[in-house]
Amino acid sequence: MCIGWALRRAMRIEIVRETAVLSAEVALLRAHVNELMDAPRHRTDGVADAPEVRTTPRSIEPLVAEPLTATVAPEVVSQREALTDFDTPAGSRWGSPPSGDRSASAPAPAEPREPGWLASGVAAARGWLFGGNTIVRLGLVILFVGLSFLASYAAAAGLFPIEFRLAVVGLFGIALLGIGFRTRTKRPDFALALQGGGVAIIYLTLFGAARFYDLVPLSAAFVLMIAVCALGCALALLQRSQALAVTAFAGGFAVPLLLGGEGGNALGLFGYGTILNLAILFIARARTWRVLNLVGFFATFGIASLWGATAYRPEHFLIAQIFLIVSVLIYVVTAVLYTRATPGKFGNAVDTTLLFGPALAGFGLEVALIGDRPFGSAFAALGFAALYLGVSLVARRRQDQGLRVMNEAMLAIGIGFVTMAIPLALGARWTSAAWALEGAGAFWVGMRQARWMPRLFGLALQVVATLLYLGTLDDNVAALPFANPAFVGAILVALGWFATAWFARETIARETIAPGETRLARAYARGEAVIATPAFLTGFAAWWIGWLMEATRLYPAVERSLSPVPVFSTNVQILLAMLAYLVSAAAFQTIARRRDWPVAAWPARVSVGALWIGFVAQADRGGTVLSSPGCFLWIVALAVHGWMLFRSDRDDVETLGTRAVASASHVAGVWLAVVLLADMLWYGIDRAALWSTAWNEVTFLAGAVAVLAGLTLWAGPALRGEQAATRWPLDRHALHYAWTAAVPIALGIFSGAIAIALFSSGDTAPLPFVPVLNPVDVMVALAAGVLLLWRRAVLAADAVPAGAALLASKRIWLPIAALGFVAANGAWLRTAHHLAGVAWEADTLLGNALVETGIAILWTVIALTLMVVAHRRATRSLWLAGASLLGATVVKLLMVDLYATGGGARIIAFIAVGMLMLLVGYLAPLPPKVTSDDTKRGAVA
Description:
mainly alpha; two-stranded antiparallel sheet; disordered C terminus; 4 strands; 1% strand
């Protein structure tokens, strides 16, 4: 049913074409007659005729000038094959009207929509089957398969002698060849199809007679097949038909697949394939038939791979080796010939498949042959490197600018193989590094040729290489520094990504996508336009991994029973990895400045993150900043970080993103200074074995207080617009230091001071405890003082930061007063604990009569102080606060001390509080009410 439908459709198409050609010929005759009728007549008055206005399209002129005959010219025959509808397509040599304005009558056609790859493939297959003489092509396909089945059936049934069967098949092929050659002028498409089928059948016959039935000696079969190849080449070149050549060679390469067999006769198979490849090379000298070259390449290496996987034996090594070398040489030379004869947009065009294909497929087969031998893969890589570098050297001596892209591609492939030879000699794991370099080379060649497929292949190869390297990553056990697979492999992978990022640093979509590409190509170009940044960041990550592997390198064990020994201690490994990131980021920042490569400066912008990660990792492993030799590494790391911050602020373009990243780096650096200073103090605590004392408890608070005091004294003048603001980094980051970074530190200081004042016992060992002059009380007092100093500096700024309004309100004094009240009570509790021997437990402290008496007296003294100060400043609110505390003291005496304490403690509490209350009444009576103006002045005071 399908065949009948195809035949009916083919017949309809043939009828349509013939009718269209007749219509075109009638239109041509009409145009000729109109031109003769409109020809100007000679004037008899001696006046020259006016210039003739042409109404016939210029494309008809050659046909009008030719005499019309009954036989259609070859040009008309070609037009018959092009026409597929009754309506003549616009722009053809028949399609213009005999008169009229073409520009006015023919609207501009809309841009055709690009078909997808699946639609393109279907259209190509349909075009071959239904283009030209469809019936002949379909018939040849069916006939070829039928002859194969007939030969097999006759052999199985034993109907005729094998000699007769082969002779009939061969004579049939010769007949097709002869008929096609005789009809080459009248029916070119029909003739080419018959000739191609005849050549394929002759191939089938000769190969079967020699390979399977031993009717023809092997040498004679080779000679005859050489003759058939020569005949096919001659016919294709004579008629300039790539289709005939492709048909002949496709049939020739299909012979081993159609006839089957176990592949035992390797000499016959490879000799046959070599003859076909030499014929393709001969044609490549005269014609740039890329499809023919690709058919030969894929058929040769495909059949070789299939044979190697199913029929290879060690005794075939020499034959297979010679065939592989000859095949690689043939197709490398074919690629060179194609480039020499094919001009392109950026110099002569390069067939990327033939340029890279022999390298990839040939090297893979070569490794399969000799990979099990010592350094076999390495020698194979060196052989391919010598081939490509030699071809590049010979081509460069010709000094032909059109071959520049091919020369550079050959050079890149050769260098890639040289690079590959070293890791293959030391370990197969390094192959991923060579693939990364080769992927970068393919990407570069694709850019030079304005072809997106090689670039996509290069990116995919680099991704595979990176994943392969990461998948094989393990402990770096090596005796030599740097010359080991883990380090060199990562560096080579990184170099491939760096090269790709450098090539793609400009807008590829605008510069290297050729016009007329498919929608898939344009979609790829849109994604490729932003590939430079992720490519560089991936390369930088691989670069850092290489240095990390070197920092964590292990010495091989001297005996199998022992384990490898680390070259550096754990803490030093962490710091070396951190320093490697910082130094690498600084180096690439320099490259970014000198080569105008902005993305190369990105790692330097987040260098503070490396410092934080290094500190946390070191602290997790029990290391400290001051431990040797870590302290020297930290000095270098901080210096490099500060240098990169300075250059980033000076060189980066001012954008919202760069300003945010820069301010975050400075702020995070301040917070890092807090933990670094605390870590240094902890180092001293550890050296003095003071972990269970108050010295340890105030360490972090001491670091935060020191940093906030430094920020206030350093950045405070800059907020007031003094001269210090003109120097880096205060010229642009003063507010970030004094406010953005300081607010979390201030909150931490306040919370830490409250916690220490409440919960620290104040153990000052090995020093004696001194009330008030102990580390806890001193540090809490310093914390309160630094907080007040910082508040004053922020409020004195020329432009008060947004969010600082709370610091200027009266409510800010409530937490400050709470801190002072807690600090005073904590100081008394610690004094009672150390001097009176009261246990540092909540129940014991609150149940002790001495402690309760002291608290009552302390509260009364605080209330007296507040009320006296309020009386002198005439501030009723402050006086009322003191009175409230005094009232709370009285309530405590009556509700708690009256029943909980006894003896002298209760007497002292009541007498002391009573006398202090009398003193309050004398020194600080309630201030009178004041007017609104006085209230404002008091608030200001």
